[in-house]
Design goal:
By secondary structure, this protein is of the alpha/beta class. The chain has one domain: Ribose 5-phosphate Isomerase B, Chain: A, CATH 3.40.1400. The chain has 7 helices and 5 strands, in the order E-H-E-H-E-H-E-H-E-H-H-H.
């Protein structure tokens, strides 16, 4: 799977670990940075990942900032993107199963030393359930079609 990744300075260490893990798992990674603890603005990285997913150049995206919320807000501005901040495996599974989330937003400050790879692998392996959830996603698509988005 082709996965776009990006983080601000508060998530760059986790991003580095994920890039290594996902590459070893056979995924193709598009890494938008950042690669240091120098302060940067998370919207810049979220835009790059969200555009890549929205344009179909990557099947999924992963963003990491301090709490995961800021990158999710930015990513959700793009048509066809469904981003959610998740901090455990249950959230990661349910956002895929019920909402077909295509960008996972991780809280770099809140994950700590927990094995984030397990969370990401659950998210990547979980299929969208469809059924009643598809009807709801179609309503979201209708809302997007009626609004002005980038």
């Amino acid at each position: 799977m082709r996965i776009a990744v990006g983080s601000d300075h508060r998530g760059y260490q986790i991003k580095g670990k994920l890039v290594t893990l996902l590459t070893a798992d056979g995924h193709e990674i598009i890494d938008f940075g950042t690669d240091s603890d120098q302060a940067v603005d998370y919207p810049d990285y979220a835009v790059s990942v969200a555009k890549t997913v929205a344009d179909g150049k990557a099947e999924r995206g992963i963003l990491i900032c301090g709490n995961g919320f800021g990158t999710a807000i930015v990513a959700n501005k793009f048509r066809g993107v469904r981003a959610a901040a998740c901090s455990d495996e249950v959230m990661a599974e349910m956002c895929r199963r019920h909402n077909d989330v295509n960008i996972l937003c991780l809280p770099g400050d809140l994950i700590g030393d927990r094995p984030v790879g397990d969370l990401v692998r659950v998210w990547l392996a979980t299929e969208f359930e469809g059924g009643r959830h598809l009807r709801r996603l179609e309503k979201i698509q209708h809302i997007e079609d009626e609004s002005v988005t980038p």
